[in-house]
Amino acid sequence: MENAKKGKITLLFADASHFIMGCAYLGYIYGKVRRFIRTYSGRSRYNVLGALDYISKKLTTVTNDTYITAAQVCQLIQKVSLEYAGKPIYLILDNARYQKCLLVQALAAALNVTLVYIPPYSPNLNLIERLWKHVKSRLRTKYYDDFSIFKEKIDSITDSTDKSEKKVIDKLICEKVQFFDTKTFENIAEFSSA
Q1: In 24-69, which residue ranges form alpha helices assigned H by DSSP?
Q2: pLDDT tens readout for residues 122-149
Q3: 176, burial (CB in 10 Å: exposed 0-12, middle 13-18, buried 19+)
Q4: Spatial CA neighbour of 50 closest among 171, 161, 152
């Protein structure tokens, strides 16, 4: 992070998010009377594979409505290598198979993109997870009955991470990353066994 702030490297956090229209984007209403809320009956899914620049907060994306595979990860690496040519590129990823396969690793090596895999079960280390949570919270404010409008809304949010949404994203994506040291794990183990 320090090298990225000094301009020595480009630091990108990458991951995919899967937005399912009509699923988990509506709020809850509590009360004594049962209420029915309109929701979409289908399961249309919009996948966004993104790489978030730690400094500028610009999001580079590859999207589809089928699946994210190694082919889409390779497409993202190619886009990133063209966009950020001239500086060493570090791409932070989780351990999903489609991101850790030989095809992805070979392409990254050929394009001089360094892949850094976070430890398993450590989503707090991949700062793009905070962006996905923000996008999903913005989707909860409206009922969508048209998949194209649903996709446009997601695209408008993700396209503005370095523009109109920058102040919000700057607060979400900052240096406040939760790290655990060995002592913390020892204390948790002691507490759990007591």
Answers
A1: none
A2: 888 899 999 999 999 898 888 788 899 9
A3: exposed
A4: 161
- The reported pTM is 0.82
Distances (CA, A) of 58 to 87, 88, 115: 16, 17, 19
Over residues 87-112, the pLDDT tens digits come to: 999 999 999 999 999 999 999 999 99
Domain boundaries, the chain: 2-193
Q: Which residue has the higher pLDDT, 165 or 58?
A: 58
Q: How many helices (H) and strands (E) does the chain have?
A: 8, 5
- Chain-centroid distance, C-alpha 74: 16
Q: What is the pLDDT of residues 10-25, one digit of tens each?
A: 999 999 999 988 765 4
Tokens 């999207």 belong to: 63
List Cβ neighbours of 79 (8 Å cut-off, separation of 6 or more). Answer: 51, 60, 62
Residue with token string 């607060």: 171
Please count the residues of the chain: 194
Q: Rounded CA gap, 103 and 39, in Å? A: 40
CB 91 within 8 A of CB 14: yes
- The hierarchical CATH code for the domain 2-193 is 3.30.420.10
pLDDT at position 184 is 46
